[in-house]
Amino acid sequence: MLRSFCVFLGLMTGSAALAAEPADTNYDESKVPQFTLPDPLVDNAGQAVGPEEWVDHRRSEVLRMFEESVYGKTPDQKLDVRYEISESDADALNGKATRTQIAAYFGTDPYRIDLLVYTPNGVDEPAPAFVGINFNGNHTVHADPAILQRDTEFERGSSSDRWQLETVIDRGYAVATLARHQIDPDRYKVNFSDGVHPLFYSDGQTSPRDDQWGSIGAWAWALSRTLDYLETVPQIDASRVAVIGHSRMGKSALWAGARDPRFAMVVSNDSGCGGAALYRRCYGERIHHMMKPISYWFCKNHRQYENREDELPVDQHMLLALIAPRPLYVASATNDRWADPKGEFLAAKHASPVYEMFGKPALSTQSMPKPDHPIHTTIGYHLRTGDHAITAYDWQQYLAFADTQMGTQ
């Protein structure tokens, strides 16, 4: 069984167990093929672009290529939405925060997604915020007994180490989260008959077309819909909202940040193949490793690039460049070779010319740092000692970065 599928099952169950990797997995730098990356600053007509041309047409050109070959097109249809406050407490977390739980109903045959929002108390102005999707239910992000629990598969507070909720609140940031499976169930052999996809089907349609969104597209869509709600909350400064994600949710955070310029900052934690790592390095996980167990994360067109990464019209440095000139943070872990830490760093480095075109300091002159030696320019990067996880150390870097990049200090 492919390791990507086993990792997928491990994340579903909350275990950290890893299985045997595919026989053709490459962890040898000497076997990384020679490759040439597409230049984000040369358009499809072969013309060099500056800031004006980037804004005028090149950015949309790159975005369209990702839609067509990687993530699929997200429907532009606007759904009716109704918000209902399910529960609220102004004295949550021992008085540190106000907890609000919101049921968001989408469409005419309403589909419900539950949002959990904590805002810090005792602040003098609207707070900046972090928005992210949790893996196993809102009740897993903290042991707070008042968080509504929609199922009993995962224990209350079982993912609290990934969220560091009280640390974030103490720093003056709000936190908003929603559960992965309420947006897209993320199941092997998925048929897209549940989740949010059917809300957008045309008559007679039962699954996305070859160039339409998969699960990553749906998760990214939901992150933007969460930001829609935060724009209605007076206690939150919606102009200072960072989108964050780990692993497949890191892929989703990057795609959300690329598509939605309202996100003021984007954080990718260990997002790997299909996230921050360069495809063309062919190191660790590759497209053909993903296609059997988790092809539904992407559009069906993505399958044609199995073992043909060099034929992709894009690579992931271009995805990161779509976030420019907004702050971007990419993080890796030393033991997470499957996600190709060097490929994640190089993608950030090769996105840097677009940032620098806008006068933003980035990573063009940087070498890959030693473990636990973060770089904080407009593009932040660190290689944390340890495994595939999001930890207190990671959050310390993201908060320090946000303090400077989103104007909280």
Automatic annotation (TrEMBL):
Keywords: Hydrolase, Serine esterase, Signal. One of its GO terms (molecular function) is carboxylic ester hydrolase activity. Residues 1-19 form the signal peptide. It comes from the Bacteria. InterPro entries: AB_hydrolase_fold (IPR029058), FrsA_esterase (IPR050261), GCE-like_dom (IPR054579). Residues 209-359 form the 4-O-methyl-glucuronoyl methylesterase-like domain. This is 4-O-methyl-glucuronoyl methylesterase-like domain-containing protein.
